[in-house]
Amino acid sequence: MLLFQETQELVEEVPQEKTLSIYNLIMDGGVGGQIIIALLFVLLAVALYIYFERFFAIKEASKVDVNFMDQIRDHVTNGRIDSAKSLCDNTVTPTARLIGKGISRIGKPLEDINTAIENAGKLEVYKLERNVSVLATIAGAAPMIGFLGTVIGMIVAIHEIANSGGQIDIKMLSDGLYTAMTTTVAGLIVGIIAYIAYNHLVVRTDKVVYQMEAKSVEFLDLLNEPV
């Protein structure tokens, strides 16, 4: 009987491993921490929406028929300007709109045609980069917002310790630190995701821009060819 009681006491003294619950960390973080986490979730949703919306838009803009410039060359060389314009109008891509702008200026000085294409290109680049700068803002702001939540959590934890009459409760302090660091982790996660998404879109946009420049140069070379 004595052996059983000693065994039971040993079992009761074994420390229970404490598991971390993200939900509890968020809910125990007070109103300030919950607002910060909610704001970061909103920023994450906005970042993901902008990324996927721009990704599919840029992917669609990068699609160019490999025979497009050959057909333009054939129409322009044979004097079928209206057919060339119609082909550009029916091809819904930034490159086709640039070439269409150049075709509409045929007959004017080459410098005017080049200027018209450049102006149209600036507009197309602006359309491709629409809202992408928001991703860069989120990538920079999210970690700072998370750190703000951490500072608020630390202030609250220190305030609780100050009101405890000088008796520091290690459990209360550790819970406060857990909660405070949660906002930093959330902010870094959102910032990293937004940063990667932003750079990926920039790379894909640059490819489309280079594509437009190459086709524009090819079109100008076509106009410079001797008749």
TrEMBL record:
Where are the membrane-spanning stretches?
A: 31-52, 132-158, 178-198
Entry superkingdom: Bacteria
Q: Which residues form a coiled coil?
A: none
Q: Which UniProt keywords apply?
A: Cell membrane, Membrane, Protein transport, Transmembrane, Transmembrane helix, Transport
Where is this gene product found?
Answer: Cell membrane; Membrane
The topology of this chain with respect to the membrane is:
Multi-pass membrane protein
The MotA/TolQ/ExbB proton channel domain, residue ranges: 94-213
GO biological process, alphabetically ordered: protein import
Q: Which Pfam families match?
A: MotA_ExbB
Q: What is its main location?
A: membrane
Q: Which GO terms describe its cellular component?
A: plasma membrane
Q: Spell out the PANTHER family in the cross-references.
A: PROTEIN TOLQ, TOLQ-RELATED
Which family is this protein grouped under? Belongs to the exbB/tolQ family.
> What's the protein name?
MotA/TolQ/ExbB proton channel family protein
